[in-house]
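Design a sequence for this backbone.
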């Protein structure tokens, strides 16, 4: 089973904006990144699926770059607001 079939079987791919990405995942090796916001109170199940998917992509020969913090942390959690407020380095 190739990586795209595996991800579809696991229902980790539902739709794509460009179907060509599926061809790229099957026939080329790509570098991708996954960012996480460290300002939340805790990690939850919603964080788990992207990291498990990243691990599967790595096992298929792709290269993952995992980002935690940095600019993602400065933007903060948008819950309850319509706009994300940029946080200072001292306040996050």
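Sequence:
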């Amino acid at each position: 089973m190739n990586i795209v079939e595996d991800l579809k079987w696991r229902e980790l791919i539902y739709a794509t904006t460009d179907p060509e990405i599926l061809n790229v995942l099957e026939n080329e090796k790509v570098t991708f990144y996954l960012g996480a916001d460290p300002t939340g109170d805790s990690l939850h199940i919603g964080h788990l699926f992207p990291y498990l998917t990243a691990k599967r992509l790595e096992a298929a020969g792709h290269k993952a770059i995992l980002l935690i913090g940095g600019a993602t942390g400065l933007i903060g959690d948008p819950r309850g607001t319509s706009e994300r407020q940029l946080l200072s380095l001292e306040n996050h």
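Residues 45-59 form the longest helix (15 residues).
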